[in-house]
Amino acid sequence: MKLSSQQLEQHLAKTLAPIYIISTDELLLAQDALDQIRAAARKAGFTERQSLTVETGSDWGKLLYAEAHSLSLFATKRIVELHLAGSKPNNAASKILQDIAASPLPDTILIITSNKFDSRTEQTAWHKALEKSGVVLQVWPIPLQQLPTWIMQRAKKAGLQFTPDAAKLLADQVEGNLLAAAQEIEKIGLLQITGVIDHHAIAQAVTDNARFDIFSLVECALSGNSQRCIRILDNLRAEDVEPILILWALAREVRTLADIAKQMKQGAPLNTLFSKFRIWEKRQPSVRRFLQQHSQADCLTLLAHCAKIDRIVKGAQTGNAWDELQLLTLKLTGSVIITN
User: Fold this and answer.
1) Are residues 18 and 60 in the same domain?
2) pLDDT higher for 312 or 89?
3) Residue 282 and residue 221 share a domain
4) Residue 316: which residues within 8 A CB-CB, separation 6 or more?
5) 147-188 pLDDT tens trace
6) I need a labelling partner for 197 at 20 to 30 A (CA). Which of 27, 297, 299, 331 fits?
7) DSSP labels for 132-161?
8) 3-class secondary structure, 108
9) Range of the domain at 185
10) Among 111, 138, 165, where does a domain finish?
11) Which uninterrupted H or E stretch holds 62?
């Protein structure tokens, strides 16, 4: 059975399924859903919780089997959580999941969390079996135009009353980052602002920390948004982020792109390379865009630029590291031509 995030609360008020699958790239929404299921399970007497976090390459199917069939030490009802991240089950693990779906574990709720599954994964036998026996939670990203409404609802749960203008201002500040929005709402709650919170109160309480983090910069550069890249860099500099950390993230991405471009030149299909280099579905359009515009030789030139910045940061060469980082970023966006 498939449910949306909005249907989950109503479902949990009526019943508990033996299996839940939460797959999304929105970590905050995944955590919210997980917390709701845990709370409902505890209320129903599932007081013991065991958690398995999968590492790439580990034989987690056997671990899950052992955990699921072990005797409960402290309670008769328990929750078993399997956190897959981006890992997919091998044949043995797939068979174990199908067996659990066919015969759900007694007095046990299995919760599986993962990055967003692609359509191919959703058509696998193990996923179909789990969906038939349990609940697949469809957690979609919040569209930007709906973010103010989401902010008002979350603020209300925190005992705060936002005006629409206040919610719109906060949405603009966080630029779609739900975790940043949640943190700002929590901070406003700690400030103990009473009454209706309007946009003036938000302006005073909220800093412009629209999650201008390093990985946002990388993704923004590959997407070709040069203006936002400059804004992100300016904020990272204002927050005293070390240039070497930014360079590390950019250089790591360029090295991966260089490897992909090299293997594409040798005839490897891009979709196969996406899987090999663990480029998740959400990031594929921006990576594809970059590779359509840049060659392996371009990537090697960018790596040479990274080496130059590294020397500047370490004092082995004169220059301004921030200016060079901006130039490197603009080259990644395609707004500055890469020359040898």
Assistant:
1) yes
2) 312
3) yes
4) none
5) 999 999 999 988 889 999 889 888 887 777 787 788 888 878
6) 27
7) HHSEEEE-PPPPGGGHHHHHHHHHHHTT-E
8) strand
9) 144-205
10) 138
11) helix 60-68
